[in-house]
Amino acid sequence: MGRGISGQTTPQMQVRFHADVVALEPSVLVKAARVGATSVDYHTAMADERQGLRANLGDDGVHPNEAGYRIMSALVEPAIATALRAR
After folding, report:
1. Structural element, H or E, at residue 70
2. pLDDT digit string (tens) for 42-56?
3. pLDDT at 23 exceeding the cut of 60
4. End-to-end distance of the chain based on CA atoms, in angstroms?
């Protein structure tokens, strides 16, 4: 379920985190690395020489396009399976 709001900053996302994530009681949450948490490194797989999003993976240089989401899916699906096994 996509709950993102284009253009929001991190502090704005933190304000709505409880209502948009915690209250929905997800089985798995994809977010920041923390001790004991499963994390996914999208950056290494998707960055160009400027350390930004590779041009073929996004149409505006910031948000992934279909090709970008395919890479993200391939990385996150095994991490989700790992997180669910660890529960």
Report:
1. helix 66-86
2. 999 999 999 999 999
3. yes
4. 21
Instruction: Say yes or no to pLDDT of 34 above 70.
Output: no
What letter does residue 64 receive in the DSSP assignment?
B
**Residue 44 near residue 74 (C-beta atoms within 8 A):** no
Q: State how far the Cα of 41 lies from the Cα of 18, in Å rounded to an integer.
A: 24
CB atoms within 10 A of CB 30: 14
What's the mean per-residue pLDDT of the chain?
A: 86
Domain that holds residue 76: 29-86
Does residue 80 lie in a domain region? yes
**Secondary structure (DSSP) of 3-56:** ---TT--HHHHHHHHHHHTGGG--S----S--TT-----HHHHHB-TTSSB-GG
19 within domain boundaries: no
- Look at residue 35 and tell me if it is in a domain: yes
